[in-house]
Design goal:
3-stranded antiparallel sheet, 25 helices, Growth Hormone, Chain: A, mainly alpha, 77% helix, 520 residues
Length: 520
Amino acid sequence: MTGQLRYTVTVALIVALGGFLMGFDASVISGVVSFIGPEFDLTRIQLGWSVASLTLTATLAMMVSGPLSDRLGRKPVLRIAAALFAVSALASAVAPDFISLVAARMLGGLGVGAALIIAPMYIAEIAPAKIRGRMVSFNQLNIVIGISAAFFSNYLILRLGASDLGWAQALNLGDWNWRWMLGVEAIPAVVYFLALFAVPESPRWLVMHGRDDEALGIMERVTNADQARAGLEAVHESLSADASEEKAAFRELFRPAMRLVLTIGLAVAILQQITGINSVFFYAPMIFEQSGIGTDASFLQAVLVGLVNLVFTVLAILTIDRLGRRPLLAFGLTGIAVCMLVLSYGFGSATYTLDDRAVASLPETLEREALVALQDETYDSDVAFRQAVVDAVGPEAYDEHRSELVSAAIGMNPALILAGILGFVASFAISLGPVMWVLFSELFPNRVRGLAISFVGLVNSAVSFGVQLVFPWELENLGNSLTFLIYAVFAIIGLVIVIRLVPETKGRSLEELQAELVKV
């Protein structure tokens, strides 16, 4: 590895740590929801707010971080994002109530949105063209690694909190487990903030602000002198073209000629979220607890979710240009539909019975005498069982002992649920996850591409927010089986749309696609 390549890779890896923090911050909440519900006496919608609030402010940050970075620079905005991650983690960890927790999570959402936009932008602007794709992929890969790290961190804290280790007890990992889960993110956030001082400003931003000598010096560190001067001239030509080109108006997206590509873009943007991926990423332990395996095992299985997501995301990156976008989407949506149907069947076939032995196994802190009337009664759905127990012991006691009650009463095959969840994550990670953004970059004409991607990205975030918000409410009121059946129906509808509308874009020029899809 040459010194120039080593420098480029080092800078890209440092900046891509923003992707790691984004993935960690977004999914760490999955281990927290089981504990904050009883502690803060939350309704299902409030629990959804504690998860979805981050997406709300992340969407806002995505819209403003680009223009802000044009004014302040890429590096300062990334440092602000790192500081927001750290402050949000610490504020979330010490939150005394629900409102404070949501406010802290929303603060972190600003960091998530900024990192999502600026980190890949910076890497694309500093990396030489021949390795730009691989360097930018570091950020997406780091997002997935961050998701996996959050699942593992949550499980590790839970296990240490239950151990007899003196230092773990001194840190009160047992009683403050969810607070430590949220607070530990401050460590990589501070590392990111400090490491950013070692990277230069974006050469393109320096040229935009008339600092050509500094820009040329940075370019010469990542490539040879001749290529650096040619790159500098290319940036000047690009900026001149941008300045002379009239900005596309929002109404241009809704011209009749744009109808097909906008329909495809919106359909894929909605499908990526409405099939339930963030329900799994953000509520994985809660879902696994519903299969009766207990809290510890549910956190361990969530670690498997992160690992499967990582492996199949890498597989998608390696195969997307070989197999094509359309086959991956069709294969992935078929897998998603099948796995959601498996989950719906698995939960739908479960029964719930509290016999003498089951009641005796429940914690002494639960009022067992109140459950005598329910003994040997069999319930065919989780909704009916929950309502019967709530009527007997109250909603607070049920929320506090949900895992123990379900584990004691349920009769089902938990391996079926694990297989369904892992199959779903694998199907998503090899299709809708990475393919959506590739399609967005190829479908829309050059003139409106940035505006169109921003619009469909906003719709994608809005659907994500809604899915995260209502998922706990769906589990409580519709039940596990019906909730996953709804996701399966959306996947089947999406498969039909992909087969009928989505073209294959592999190996075709942007101009060729524009001529075919944008009818003037």
